[in-house]
Inverse folding.
């Protein structure tokens, strides 16, 4: 999953291209975003 965190640094356009090309699923993008939030939440404390 650590390598997947790179998806957090791709643009929405690139993510759309990856989904359209079947390289990632929309579910994978959501799971990745939630993992990234969990990773940065202790330092940023931006979600309650």
């Amino acid at each position: 999953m650590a390598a997947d965190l790179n998806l957090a640094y791709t643009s929405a356009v690139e993510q759309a291209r990856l989904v359209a090309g079947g390289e990632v699923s929309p579910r994978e993008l959501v799971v990745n975003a939630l993992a990234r939030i969990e990773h940065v939440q202790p330092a940023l404390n931006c979600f309650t």
The chain has a mean pLDDT of 88. The radius of gyration is 12 Å. The chain has one domain: 3-44. The longest helix spans residues 26-44.
